[in-house]
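Predict structure. Chain length: 290.
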Amino acid sequence: MSDAPPPEKAESAGVPAWVMTFADLMTLLMCFFVLLLAFSEMDVAKFKQLSGSMKDAFGVQAEVEARTIPKGTSVVAQEFSPGRPDPSSINQIRQFTVDSNRNTLDALNRELKEIEETREHARRLRLALKEEISQGSVSIQTEGMKIIVRILENASFDSGLADVRPDFMPALTKIGGLIDSNSGDVTISGHTDNVPIQNDRFRSNWDLSTSRAVSVTHALLNASTLSPDNVTVTGHADTRPRAPNDSVENRAKNRRVDISIVRGSKLDKHSTMSVAAAPEILDTTEVTQP
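Prediction complete.
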């Protein structure tokens, strides 16, 4: 055997090359996040809100039901805490708040009163026109603050004519006696069926419906104290039928003159509060019997 010493191991060539790349990457990432932190801003309001949410989530709180909206002296502060009492030069300190519900309640009460008066007015009209209602020549319908007195052609007009029949004039006198300027605005509208008409006097159903409405208007103005300023006259021909024009009976329903009486102020007329807040007193059923 040889007594020569074993050969020495070769010296290491150094760390792998990828370590330098990894170190550079880590350095760049650290610089990137340091810059992000330097450019960032702390939102104190959001931090307090977040801390409050965490406190509510992990703490123990008592829930108190708020039945009314808190009224304070500041619209900026979100929390109220008792302050130190200071002496005042006056003996009594009062805080005035506005009752936000009063106007709404007043409007509702006023509209409900108008609806009740409308129903009472319709009841008086039904009593006065009891005979005509039983004969089927007149019907009365209420919708909120509106009364619709519907005059059918079978007893009021001759076919194709616009003059009110003499035997129906007493009925219009009764209606006029129960309408005055305090009753509200009155709209008198004429309607026909879809059967065309053309003669020496009427060119179309538009002429016929308008002429019938005008005839009823003159009769009502002569029999009442109603001011012409509160009256509107319209003719609709066959554009607003009550029933399909597919039978003799339905066409007879469509030949009519409607007298609409609307109570209340202009604001109340366009309001839907009565329907939404008090549907139990809305009567849309057409009454043909007293």
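Summary: Residues 266-290 have pLDDT under 50 and may be disordered.
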